[in-house]
Structure formats: C-alpha cells, structure tokens
Amino acid sequence: MVKKGLFIGIVTLDFVYLSGKLPSNNEKIAASDYTVSAGGPATNAAVTFGYLGNQAEILGVVGTHPITQLIGSDLGNYRVSITDLAPDYTEPPPVSSIIITEATGERAVISINATKIQASTEQMPANIYTGVDLVMIDGHQMALSIAYAPLAQKNNIPVIIDGGSWKPGFEKVLPFVDYAVCSANFYPPGCSNSEEVFTYLQELGIPHIAITQGEKHIQYFSLGVSGKLPVPQVEVVDTLGAGDVFHGAFCHYILQQKFTESLVAAAEIASYSCKFFGTRRWMEFQNK
C-alpha cells in the first residue's frame, strides 16, 4: 500500500555547481558540471520519500513567480505534490547557489532562508491530515509546525523533525514529536554537546532520538535504550542534501520497521547518495 507523508518546510530552487576549487575574491572560475533542482530540507526529504514509492505532499510557500515552474516540474517527476500556502505570492522563491569541491565533496552554500516567506496559521488548509501516515517538519515554517504538531498527535499521526539546527519555536513543537532525528549541529538552548541534547529531548518525553554525525556513527536513544549505529563508508563525490535524503528515507522505513533498523537503512541510502553529484543523480542508479 502506498503511504502518504506530509512535509512542512521550505521550498527553494537550487543551482549547484561542481568545481575544482572555490573562487577567490574577484575571481571567475568555470564549473565542470551543474544541476538545477528544487531544494530545502523538507523538500529533498519529500523527493526521497516519493522516489521510494510513496506519495509526498509539501506544505510551504511557492507563489507564482515564473521560476517556480522549475520547482513544480522537478517535483512532479518524484510523486511530490505542493500545497502552496501563498499562491498569489509574486516574489521569487528562495534561491540557493552551491559550489561542490570536486576533491572532497564538501559544499559552500549561499541562500535565503524562509524568514521572508513565513505562512500564518490563517493560511492553513482544512483537513490536511486526511489519509496522511506521517508528518515531517524541518522548522522553516515554524508557525504552521507549532499548529500542526499537536493536531497530528491528536490524530495518532507520527511526527518527525529534521533537527538540522536549532530554530526558535522548536520548543513548542518538540513535546508532540515521536522521532527527533537531529544533526550534530542541533543545540537547543543551554546545550553544548550531544549528551546534553539527548537529556533535553528526553525530558520533553520524545521516545525516539537520533543524532547523525556525517560519516561517523549515529547515536540513538529509543524507549530507554541507547547506543551507536555504524554508517557505511563510501568514496564521497558530493555531500549536498545527504541529511535530507537520510530524513526522507527514514520516513519511508519507519512506516515498515523498527527505529534502529530504519536509521541503518536510511544511512545506507544517504551514504550511497554521496557517491553522485547533486541531489537527484543517485536515483538513476540505486535499486529501491
């Protein structure tokens, strides 16, 4: 049976360049490759979730600017639909320019966040949870997330957060979260290391918590049990969007199996994606 996921967050247009080096001041360099696609944590997670055979819906702000057609066209290829909370918005969507260094796969990013395109609760569509099997929140549409998280819990729909970094308002979402999947850069107020982060989240009653650390092991806490999980080691071409791929894959697997098993399966896919340039090309070679 096809599962449906609701992904709440930012929708961007990403211009990604592959280069031998980063440019210096006043220097022009030629990229060896490039790609254009929709982006943002929740958006890339939705694409992965859709690619793995599910139905994904993004709740965010897109608008009517001409370049949003590129976003819609890209997402349409991956079973991802958009519920646009500001369909009359005429300004350009957030755009990211990203340079991937060929030798290391590391990335440099300049972008605009969702500060200027925050939707209000008055823009919330009715009955958005109909048929939804899970909700994932990346924190970029915080007012909506604060409103939707308790509704999801009330309707017995699991809530997952992508804790890439701390964002004001998360403290109002976290009490309704079932799965907190965070990066090593996620530091709630008063926290400066992973032990303190685990304690903070556990005290809020979150039953399942994970902290990813790139190519290093995943730390987890699940129903009173803690431990570490290995991450596959690969030859890295591009790390862009690996965390987003991880979250999308986790959303897929958590509907089928246990927490730690889902983390391991998600890590396999995210690591595999790092072998390819851009956030989509890995899908051309990966067997579902």
How would you characterize the overall build of this protein?
The protein has 288 residues and is α/β, with parallel strands linked by helices. The chain has one domain: UDP-N-acetylmuramoyl-L-alanine:D-glutamate ligase (3-Layer(aba) Sandwich), CATH 3.40.1190. The chain is built from seven helices and 13 strands. The strands form two sheets. A nine-stranded mixed sheet has the order 5-4-1-8-9-10-11-12-13, sandwiched between helices. A four-stranded mixed sheet has the order 3-2-6-7. It is globular and about 50 Å long. The two termini are 16 Å apart. The model has no long low-confidence stretch (mean pLDDT 93).
The low-pLDDT segments are none
CATH architecture, by name, is: 3-Layer(aba) Sandwich
**Beta-strand content bin:** 25-35%
The largest sheet is:
9 strands, mixed
Number of domains: 1
Rounded to the nearest angstrom, the radius of gyration is 18 Å
| N-end to C-end Cα span | 16 Å
Structural class assignment: alpha/beta
Got a strand count?
13
Provide the helix percentage: 25-40%
Number of helices: 7
In CATH's first tier, which class applies? Alpha Beta
SSE string, helix = H, strand = E? EEEHEHEEEEHEHEHEEEHH
Strand order of the main beta sheet, please? 5-4-1-8-9-10-11-12-13
Instruction: Give the mean pLDDT.
Output: 93
Here the CATH topology equals UDP-N-acetylmuramoyl-L-alanine:D-glutamate ligase
What gross morphology would you assign? globular
> CATH homologous superfamily, by name?
Ribokinase
